[in-house]
Design brief:
single chain; mainly alpha
Length: about 180
């Protein structure tokens, strides 16, 4: 009987060790699931922010289109000031387009949405007589972003390059002033 007791104790010790390992594994799995849930919540929050920013940008673009169709009213202070004021208004308008685009990039839009916003901005630049060079650079980014899938976020490397290009575009626009 002593031999059977020893055998049973050994088996119970093995079972106890297996239960301990299973408990540790379950605790790790629970920890991983908690992190996944947290990340999903963050992604969901970011998606809501992106959607809200997209709507704001759409409203701004629509306002800008309506202003370009109606024309911007400028009080004439003489023959020299009219063209200068109109030119400053045009540059300010183009600059605000780039600023809006930069904020969208900063907020991390989905690639396909960002491509559409850049395309719309390039079209508005072209309509308002912006630099053809800037329009070509914007259209290049549209083509790059279209290589992503419909709901893919922009690669951090590409995002950094795009931010740098937007800053260059703003500098180029400032030099045109």
């Amino acid at each position: 009987m002593a031999e059977e007791d020893t055998y049973v104790r050994a088996k119970l010790t093995e079972i106890n060790g297996a239960l301990t390992r299973m408990t540790e594994m379950l605790n790790k799995m629970i920890e991983v699931l908690t992190h996944v849930t947290t990340l999903e919540e963050r992604v969901s929050d970011l998606a809501l922010e992106v959607a809200a920013n997209g709507e704001k940008l759409d409203e701004l673009l629509e306002t800008m289109r309506s202003l370009s169709k109606k024309g911007i009213g400028v009080a004439a202070g003489g023959p020299r000031s009219t063209s200068t004021v109109e030119e400053k208004a045009k540059m300010s308008s183009l600059s605000s387009l780039l600023d809006t685009l930069e904020s969208q990039i900063r907020d991390g839009m989905i690639a396909s949405d960002l491509a559409e916003k850049i395309r719309e901005t390039a079209d508005l630049f072209e309509e308002r007589g912006g630099s053809a060079n800037l329009v070509v650079k914007m259209q290049r980014w549209v083509r790059i972003l279209k290589t992503y899938g419909r709901v893919d976020p922009v690669n951090p490397t590409d995002l950094a390059k795009l931010r740098s290009d937007v800053k260059d575009w703003q500098k180029e626009l400032a030099q045109m002033r």
